[in-house]
Amino acid sequence: MILEGKVALVTGGAVGIGRSIALELAKEGASVAINYRSSANEALELVKEIESLGRKAVAIQADISNFDSAKALIDETVNYFGSLNIVVNNAGITDDGLLLRMKEEQFDRVITTNLKGVFNVCRHASRPLMKAEDARIINISSISGLKGNIGQANYSAAKAGVIGFTKTLAREFASRQITANVVAPGFIQTKMTDVLSDDIKNQILNDIPLKTLGIPEDIAHIVTFLASPKGKYITGQVISVDGGLSI
Ligand code: NAP
């Protein structure tokens, strides 16, 4: 197992892509802190599932968009497991609308969760990560952060911001052998994409060279690779996992 002895934190780890990442990291031997905001039952079920694999897990409620709540999340993780090696910033929201009609609160809410939330968690995690050997930061952006997307000025701005932020962390932490990378999913089957109409889904499928939506495990596998010793020489990169949509 390539992550034996490592401690990982996955934000928004109870459902969707985050759930799959948490499970995959655990399957590879990591102890996992599963952060959730509202999905308490799902988080506790996932803890049980991970424990049934013989691994350790804990569910921690925290709103990562809040600086103090993010601090409590990191403190609780380190207190519980004694260290922190891998941080996966997966939590994210959408609140779509054309710029013409987008409300200020809509913009602020998405930036505060999807961009400032990543800052909040990384800022508080930086000291424990510096104490760990070969630590990893993996931030989940989006194809919308690379190409923009109609109706997602707030989301695209936040996800593009995550890329610049992560490249900076890669430079700042390189001397400590901490890597920082971005995974940019295309369209993955989760709650976030279930809300799209069949018309929009068909249009998207038409544009994807591999002609299929991704599944959460497609993201979890690359995250696990980046988190493992096999990913040790990769830093500051954006890895697209999108069936070719960004070509
Ligand atoms: P999802 O099923 O809607 O799950 C979103 C997750 O974020 C939930 O676990 C939610 O926690 C958590 N979350 C939201 N706000 C939070 C906050 N303030 N504090 C803590 N947790 C918070 O979405 P998903 O599709 O799995 O997306 C996961 C990540 O991938 C997101 O960053 C998203 O932008 C990105 N992404 C997804 C796609 C896609 O096609 N699905 C494509 C590109 C990028 P609770 O449920 O506990 O509230």
Written overview of the protein:
The chain has 9 helices and 7 strands, in the order E-H-E-H-E-H-E-H-E-H-H-E-H-H-H-E. It has helices at residues 16-27, 40-52, 67-81, 104-131, 143-147, 153-173, 191-194, 198-207, 216-227, and strands at 7-10, 31-36, 57-61, 86-89, 136-140, 179-185, 238-241. The protein has one domain (7-240): 3-Layer(aba) Sandwich (Rossmann fold), CATH 3.40.50. Helix 2 links the parallel strand 2 and strand 3. Strands 3-2-1-4-5-6-7 form a 7-stranded parallel beta sheet, sandwiched between helices. The longest helix has 28 residues, at 104-131. The mean pLDDT is 98. With 247 residues, the protein is of the alpha/beta class. It is globular. The site of NADP nicotinamide-adenine-dinucleotide phosphate has 30 residues, from helix 1, strand 2, helix 4 and helix 7.
Core attributes:
single chain, 247 residues, alpha/beta, Rossmann fold, seven-stranded parallel β-sheet, 9 helices, 7 strands, 49% helix, globular, binds NADP nicotinamide-adenine-dinucleotide phosphate
